[in-house]
Amino acid sequence: MKKLLPTLATLGCGVLFTAATATAADYPVRPVQIVVPYSAGGGTDLSARIMADTLKKYLGKSLVVRNQPGGGGSIGTSAAVHARADGYTLGMGAQGPLAMLPHYGGVDYSLDDVEFIALMGRNLMVVAGCQGAPFDDAEGFVEYTREHPGEVRVGNSGAGGANHIAIEGFGNAADLDFNSMPFGGASAAVTACVGGHIDAVVASPAEVLPQIQSGSINALLVMEDERIDVLPDTPVPEELGIDFTWSSWKGVIAPVGLPEDVKETLSEALRQTFEDEEFLARMEEMGEFVDYRSADDFRELAERDSATAEEIIRQLGMYGVNQ
């Protein structure tokens, strides 16, 4: 009997090894779950569902979208990065929960806990001048702010949010001092801008384009590397000699430790999905800006934005406030 035990143990290990190898090689053998850290019906949720519809064509299995909102996106993000690293639980990784919330404290993860798979898209940032503002274009905006430090009132969608970080980061890069004014969402900030209660506002193109087209407010600059199609006459910071870009983003993440072949399978399926014509058409219909990037480029973007956000959050005296 003593002689048989090692043999049985060896056989058992061999069976387990073979099963594990087969499971990884055959991935996926069952539906894949993707955790959306926000409520159903929002932009990230709708994007994830469009992605799931297309991804099953390239992955060979269906995806189940599970909404797990709360904590500004940190609860669902935590669930995704702390799941079993087998490729069957993924997450929609957004800029706020990944690159910003860890600096405010109160979350149980960092970028080191994240396996970046692919960037799906970005929400661009536009600075628009409001009714009665003492400037008409980007050059005037910068010049007036430089001559009146701390006086130019720039509205954003909420204190410490992506839009707030955007204008403060632009100010740092240009050596400008703004009077940032938080509102209860982008809609409220844009309404205040149209009413002339503030001097400028930071928002996405979709949130300000109707007002820009009607002449209620004036596009000043877009925080991108290059001009964008929907606002072709609006300059970017580089044209003003300012080295700064900023946008909010979302992509697909997983727990660290994902088997390499599983990661490769996912990465290739997502690349095909994000280049799929039907997917692109549906996203464009919804006003989403698709910007596919590989895992390494996605991580690089997240790390860069995290460093920028940390610097600004510390300047604002908000670092670790949720600890």
Summarize the structure.
The chain contains eleven helices and eleven strands.
Question: How is this fold's topology laid out?
Answer:
Blueprint: H1 4-26, E1 32-36, H2 43-59, E2 63-67, H3 74-81, E3 89-94, H4 95-104, E4 114-124, E5 126-129, H5 138-147, E6 153-156, H6 162-174, E7 179-182, H7 186-194, E8 200-203, H8 205-214, E9 218-222, E10 247-255, H9 260-274, H10 277-285, E11 289-293, H11 295-315
Parallel strand pairs: 1-2, 1-3, 6-7, 6-8
Antiparallel strand pairs: 3-10, 4-10, 4-11, 5-8, 5-9
Helix pairs in contact: 2-9, 2-10, 4-11, 6-11
What radius of gyration results from the CA coordinates? 23 Å
Main sheet specs? 6 strands, mixed
- Integer average pLDDT: 92
Ends distance: 58 Å
Low-confidence stretches: 1-12, 15-22
Helix content: 40-55%
Derived structural class: alpha/beta
Description:
- By secondary structure, the chain is α/β, with parallel strands linked by helices.
- Helices cover 45% and strands 19% of the residues.
- The chain has helices at residues 4-26, 43-59, 74-81, 95-104, 138-147, 162-174, 186-194, 205-214, 260-274, 277-285, 295-315, and strands spanning 32-36, 63-67, 89-94, 114-124, 126-129, 153-156, 179-182, 200-203, 218-222, 247-255, 289-293.
- It has a six-stranded mixed β-sheet, sandwiched between helices. The chain has a five-stranded mixed β-sheet with strand order 7-6-8-5-9, sandwiched between helices.
- Helix 2 (43-59) links the parallel strand 1 and strand 2.
- Helix 2 packs across helix 9 (260-274), helix 2 packs antiparallel against helix 10 and helix 4 (95-104) packs parallel to helix 11 (295-315).
- It is globular and about 65 Å long.
- Residues 1-12 and 15-22 have low confidence and may be disordered.
